[in-house]
Amino acid sequence: MKHAEIAVIGGGPAGLMAALAAAEMGAKVTLVDRNSRLGGQLVKQTHKFFGSEKEYASIRGIDIGRILATEVHKNPNIETMLNSTVVAYYPDDGVLGIEVEEKKWVKMKAERIVVATGASEKYLLFENNDLPGIYGAGAVQTLMNEHGVVPGKNVLMVGAGNIGLIVSYQLMQAGVNVKAIIDAAPSIGGYWVHASKVARLGVPILTSYTVKAAYPNEMTGALERAVIWRVDDRWQPVPGTEKVFNVDVMCIAVGLSPLAELLWQAGCKMMYVPELGGHVPVRNDNMETTVSGIYVAGDVAGVEEASSAMMEGRLAGLSAAKSLGYDDGTYEEKKAEALKELENLRSGPVGGKIRKGLAQLAS
């Protein structure tokens, strides 16, 4: 049995900021992550961030990950457990079950827990959606930005949100031909600054279109052709509107779902909020769930941008430490700053969907 004052589950942007914030207040933190290095999705994000200086604006995601990971490893109040997956929460005694390096089982009793487990990619149902050559956007980013491997020569991108637009541009930078970007929604979901970059390079962005089917090469069995068709205002396919693309890669970027299994196990009250990606935990403005001592931050609390995840992580870490009595008199000021940063990030028309989703949690 291992003991921790504060256990932070997940070493992505939210978890890193939560650990640093709690340690800053004087708490002892154990940061648990299933990967071999810290950073989460930041390790594959080569684009520059928006926001303010506090969210590392104009710095590339990969560099933000390195900065935060270095700060964590240098902090004497933070212990890291890498290659360690939290797979269970025992609500009777509040103990975490952790598989370490696929070799041993460790139980951890933490006085406070910050769940920052992120999200998983959503998928689409269509004929032959399991062919080799059909990837999630995260897998494509991993291949290219971590391993330097292009997934193929000709790509159909499915999804015109920020992820789809950013990955399309990264594919083009790597010399891959992006034949089109499609989205079932009637308008582009991502920032126009991302959409304009690929549009200027001649990539068509087709809204109100979805995938009808994928077809394999007879010799290799891998993707060779994709067929799309238009959907009407009720999201129903319109026969006779099919378009065919000869592609060896289809990249699916149709959103994320919060990885909330541990929260379900813990008995946290959950609510289905489509604007936030699916089932998310009900929590207060300290990011504490309905189960006392369990806090959340990042995509597991509602799918947003990494900048918001970092601020939520900071808020959760500060609040968890404060609840244990760690406060040098700066907590209220630091909390107010984090809340103000979140408000700024969610302002304007782009943040309208997030504000609508959060309003449902508050009602």
Automatic annotation (TrEMBL):
Q: Which InterPro entries match?
A: FAD/NAD-bd_sf, FAD/NAD-binding_dom, Metab_Enz_Cyan_OpOx_G3PDH
**What top-level branch of life does the organism fall under?**
Bacteria
Provide an example Pfam family for this protein. Answer: Pyr_redox_2
Q: GO MF annotations for this entry?
A: oxidoreductase activity
SUPFAM superfamilies with a match to the protein in the record: FAD/NAD(P)-binding domain
| Domain FAD/NAD(P)-binding stretches | 5-313
Keyword vocabulary terms for this entry: Oxidoreductase
Protein name per Swiss-Prot or TrEMBL: Sarcosine oxidase subunit alpha
